[in-house]
Amino acid sequence: SGDAVGADPAPRADEVPSFAEPTEEAKEQVKRRDGNRCLACGSTRGLQADHILSAYRGGTNDIDQMQTLCKVCNKRKGTRTVFFTSQRTPLRRAPEALEHFDVPTGDEAGDRGHWDRFLRRTLNFTFQCAAVSDVKIGGKGDGYYNWTIDLMTGNSPAW
């Protein structure tokens, strides 16, 4: 694999320490700072303030140690340490595979917003940072079949 940072297995239920939940004010500060959107996929729904370094691993409630993720991305991240506040991958070599997420189906398959979030989530989790700068999905003509994904500087598109 790609030298994952903080890719430890999830703790057993009896190993999870108790800790104080961040205040509602701190959670709101984090969400405001992050533009009230998920830093992994761009969603504006079901937002949660996530500990970058999980509380289980010693993370604190300091707002600089927190990031905004939607419920789906926060659940997927689990106790891993992933800096979606960073725009440059911590990986030293290409991952062996993309992180797997279910592709949009049914009515969602016809909605560009669902594809945008799917692509951002997949690539940002794969790069373990906020690597995606822009996703362009056209509605008609060439753009319908030719999508463009721009990455932030420092993230290899060759991966």
From TrEMBL:
Residue span(s) of domain HNH nuclease: 25-75
Matching InterPro entries: HNH_5 (IPR029471), HNH_nuc (IPR003615), NA-targeting_endonuclease (IPR052892)
Chain spans, region Disordered: 1-31
Transmembrane segments: none
Pfam families documented for this protein: HNH_5
Entries under CDD domains matching the protein: HNHc
The protein's name in its UniProt record: HNH nuclease domain-containing protein
Organism: marine sediment metagenome
